[in-house]
Amino acid sequence: MAMQKALVWLRRDLRLYDNAALHHALKNNAQVWLAFIFDAHFYAIGPKMLTMQKALVWLRRDLRLYDNVALHHALKNNAQVWLAFIFDADILDPLKSEDLDASGLKHDRRVDFIWQGLKQIDEQLRSQGGRLIVQFGKPTTCIPKIAETLGVNIVYTNHDYEPSAIARDTSAAKSLEKLGIELETFKDQVIFEKKEILTNSNTVFSVFTPYKNNWLKTLQEKDIAAYDCTPKKGQWGPIPKALQGNLPSLQSMGFTPTGIESYLPPGSEGGQSFLDEFLHRIDQYQIGRDFPAIKGVSYLSTHLRFGMLSIRGLVREAHRRMLAGSMGATIWLSELIWRDFYFMILANHPRLAS
What we know:
This protein is α/β, with parallel strands linked by helices. Helices cover 39% and strands 13% of the residues.
């Protein structure tokens, strides 16, 4: 025999019967081995590597493709990843009840700002071979349908703390569960959440200053480390025909363009440009913020509200400059900590949202 020893490389033929490659190996060789390789490109290392091959990332208050915790875990643990955003009809429809223009459209800068940011994300994804799925409707209906159409077995998203948002996520999780799809959520829009910062008696704080002091004492480098969101080649999943299409226009949702991009550049790019400019004058922040006539504030609140900038990145910058002696950075960091305090209060006392 010319072929006394052979190796059979199993791939999409995981059986020992009626297998052509195995048949010829056994027929023509004295000794035969079989092997299968878990391809590192398709499977992440970890206990869930076999059950998480395709994932959908549900964007909400985290409209960025960098340092995004949900996106990080999706890319780390899955071979193919899609991203989706739903313009929530339950939120937008009440906005259109009054103050409409002659065409019956609503002038709302917030909606336009979000739309502009999503357009930027879609353009970034297209440059990498992907697309952003955007729909107008009820997220509790749209997300399960999108996930089912894509054939994913897990949806990733980041925590939201308002009672109505928690109810939405609970409803979406139940609908997804009926389809055999898991919903996994992560902390992303704060540094510390819920009951992570407590008093010495293990109760939540009700006064900001002692909360801030404990927050600063608790902070470690890992708490503000950036999450890598670099996709592998070909990792953005193809969009099936049923989900193809451009972003819904503002007009199709009942809104009109406001021109907000002319003075408040949207998206991560706009936020980064504002941040870079602010850092040149941050050392005078404690003075300039109190005088409306001068350019003293950061102008970053809107970008931060919709997650176009990472809170971890802002805190890293503020904390580093505070340690270097900048009073302006110290004041700014205190304001960023106030965001955590607010969300902590909201999470532990949801009745305050009404």
